[in-house]
Write a structure and sequence with these properties.
heterodimer, A: about 30% helix, B: Alpha-Beta Plaits, 7 helices
């Protein structure tokens, strides 16, 4: 399974129409076939970064299924929808991602909801990292062995867990690049992270924060809130 | 057919080693299959933009061929080569391109693409990337009706650019809306005129006619890159 990750720079006045195009257009149209499914529709939380940014993640079965989807958008039944969407966004930036070998699974493709019930929004911290040249494999291995396990440890500073761990596919984004979709189960640790200095034991020698600086020192976090109708929460 | 377009930000001291890996390893590794070929190896001409940037374009039979190649790079026989390429560059930005409906380049016979690294003259391409603030299809049609039709009628002795291909970004692999022209520069002295004679070329009644004015209805942002083929690039 591959994942098409898109960041949409939405026309502010068209934000409602844009979301509607995904809820009542993209999601049900994909559901008519077996090649692709919308997984997540996120809004980048206002107050935490750029305004009017939506993030969508669409699962495709494989490269051939992705190519069929591309053709439908360029010259097939999704062409009109794509053209209409061009009027609702300034631009979108996409990349195609593959799961890391230690990534949790989003489940069976056929079990992804295509007519989801509404629910409370869920917060995610999406982290995107750019390892140093030649260090991506070492970083991926360390992130699985140390970072992922630390999130699940008793007394973890952040109450969140990795729903999906991904890297960009060659030729379809920046490389090397690793993206973690991390679901927050409690807001309090996030607020503490945002409003207080990070304790020395978290950033000092021997810690993940410190030792991983040999592998990368640049990353970006986005706070994303699921739409109430997003297929996955 | 798809085209994997990659822009490499190369570590300056590693530039020769980087090019050699593409010539002696990447090109030949792809030649062992029948669904992928390196087609262009292009250096961004120094003096016209960023230093030590390389553009490579790899032709792929279809989406399955791209996925197979990507998996070879991540976990297969090209894994070690990817690691070594990775240590010779700061980063690479990739996107998958599909020919637009009017592009002269649609399908390539992959079996006919040279893979022996034989040397030839250099050529220079002007790669134009445009970002319309209108629906992408409208922009592609504008290029068809108001640019491509005009440019192909210019007689050879006056021709600056030969538009060899036009692409749009395949879904989810880059920016939308974005479209790209690969234009071979046919006359370097005419290029000199273009670069130095602003008044002439800004005149909407001359090159390329009213296109420069009409185009502003759909976009006012694009980027031209002057890309010079290596002496062994399969296509040039």
């Amino acid at each position: 399974m591959l994942f098409v990750h898109e960041v949409h720079k939405v026309v502010g006045k068209a934000a409602v129409k844009f979301e509607d195009a995904y809820q009542n257009g993209w999601m049900p149209m994909l559901a008519q076939g077996s090649d692709a499914r919308l997984l997540w529709y996120f809004d980048l939380a206002h107050g935490s970064g750029l305004a009017y940014r939506a993030v969508t993640v669409t699962a495709v079965r494989d490269g051939a299924a992705w190519a069929r989807l591309t053709e439908r958008m360029a010259s097939g039944d999704l062409k009109a929808w794509a053209g209409d969407l061009d009027g609702l966004q300034h631009e979108s930036v996409g990349r195609i991602l593959a799961p890391l070998e230690w990534s949790p699974s989003v489940g069976s493709f056929d079990e992804i909801p295509t007519d989801p019930q509404e629910h409370q929004p869920t917060m995610y911290m999406e982290d995107t990292m750019w390892p140093f040249p030649g260090k991506v494999r070492e970083y991926i291995e360390a992130a699985g062995n140390i970072y992922q396990k630390s999130l699940g440890a008793e007394g973890s500073q952040m109450q969140m867990h990795i729903e999906l761990a991904l890297q960009s596919m060659p030729g379809a984004g920046r490389y090397p690049e690793v993206t973690l979709m991390q679901k927050l189960s409690s807001l309090q640790p996030l607020i503490r992270l945002l409003t207080t200095d990070i304790p020395q034991e978290i950033v000092g020698p021997g810690s993940w924060m410190y030792e991983a600086l040999d592998l990368r020192d640049q990353w970006r976090s986005k706070l994303l809130r699921t739409a109430v109708w997003s297929p996955l929460q | 057919m798809l085209f994997m377009h990659e822009t490499h930000k190369v570590i300056g001291r590693q530039a020769a080693a980087f090019e050699d890996m593409y010539r002696s390893e990447w090109m030949t590794a792809l030649a062992r299959t029948d669904d992928a070929r390196l087609v262009w190896y292009l250096n961004h001409a120094m003096g016209s933009g960023p230093a030590y940037q390389v553009v490579t374009i790899t032709a792929l039979a279809d989406g399955a061929a791209w996925e197979a190649l990507a998996q070879r790079m991540l976990v297969g026989d090209l894994k070690d080569l990817l690691t070594r390429l990775d240590t010779s560059r700061y980063q690479v930005e990739g996107k998958l391109l599909a020919p637009v409906y009017w592009s002269a380049l649609q399908e390539l016979d992959l079996a006919e693409i040279p893979t022996d690294g034989s040397e030839h003259d250099l050529s220079v391409f002007m790669q134009d990337t445009g970002w319309p603030d209108a629906p992408l299809d409208d922009y592609i049609e504008l290029w068809d009706h108001d640019y491509w039709h005009f440019m192909r009628q210019i007689p050879p002795e006056r021709k600056l650019l030969d538009i060899q291909a036009c692409f749009q970004v395949a879904h989810g692999s880059g920016i939308r809306p974005e479209a790209i022209l690969m234009q071979k520069i046919m006359n370097f002295s005419t290029l000199g005129n273009l670069l130095t004679s602003v008044e002439v070329f800004d005149d909407p009644t001359t090159w390329p006619g009213s296109y420069m004015i009409k185009g502003l209805e759909l976009r006012d942002q694009w980027e031209s890159k002057l890309l010079r083929t290596s002496k062994w690039s399969p296509l040039w």
